[in-house]
Prior knowledge:
The protein is α+β, with helices and mostly antiparallel strands. The chain has 2 domains: about 5-145, Immunoglobulin-like; about 160-255, Sandwich (Immunoglobulin-like). The protein is built from 4 helices and 14 strands. The chain has helices at about 5-20, 30-40, 85-95, 280-295, and strands spanning about 45-50, 55-60, 70-80, 95, 110-115, 120-130, 145, 160-165, 170-175, 190-195, 205-210, 220-225, 235-240, 255. A 4-stranded antiparallel beta sheet has the order 4-3-6-7, covered by helices on one side. The chain has a 4-stranded antiparallel beta sheet with strand order 11-10-13-14, with no helix packed on it. A 3-stranded antiparallel beta sheet has the order 1-2-5, with no helix packed on it. α1 crosses α2. About 30% of the residues are buried.
Amino acid sequence: MRRPLSHHRRFHSRRASTILPSLRSGGLAGLAFLAVLLAAAPPARGQVNPDSSVVLQWTAPGDDGTVGRASVYDIRYRTTTVSGTDTTTWWNGATQVTGEPLPGSAGATDSMRVRGLTPITTYYFMVRAGDEVPNWAGYSNIAQKATSGDVVAPAAITTLAITTIATTSLTLRWTSTGDDNTTGTATSFDIRYSTAAITSANFTSATLASGEPAPLVAGTVQTFVLGGLTTGQTYYVAMKVSDERGNVSLISNVVSGTPADTIAPAAVRDLSLGPNPAAADPMELALADLEEQRGFQH
Length: 298
């Protein structure tokens, strides 16, 4: 008898229309796909990762309803949910992800990691399946998830100091902070210098140093020679720290120094007697002769 089959079809159709009245059916395949997502399996769900990506998971529909294997997925997301029952407008304005996986066999669990999302943002996701024609399934349920992501900036450097003053350079030393406050390893240093006092307001207007070292793990003492300076000119120096997500620390303590000529002439190391030490100075010989003549006269 085929009556039980038609009974099940009516049951799924009623359940689908109750849950998502705005379903745009792609024929029986569309209705069956929605039933698989909403009735036969747990709802699609998301899992947030520290890099502001979200993992989506769902149950694969089939090529024909819940039989066979579909050909393609179309996954889209927005930062706003569906307004009322207007799912079509939401879908048409949503961002389509790239690199969707190929559908698994009907009933299999498919998943995808969506990357490049904004931290601390709520996203709404929806998926549709298509076959080889393509006939497109109706809209799935909406999976909602708020991203967390890395929003913790490195701690500000508070140990910046000048350790050596040379004719045209200043040697800097500091203790590295971390990627997240004082933990881990940051990504880059931004060292700036100026002949005027540096503050957080004018930091970016100061001259950017070149050749800064890469940050080492938090707690490591690092040094850098700031060269190309003018002797006798006072310079102010400050720095900031950035992590891989572009989170930037506050400005460091500000130090100042004046490159100076502190190098004395080299000491003489080859002092010796002349080439003919026995030879006397002609003037000394003349004076000696004069004194000798005077002695005879007395």
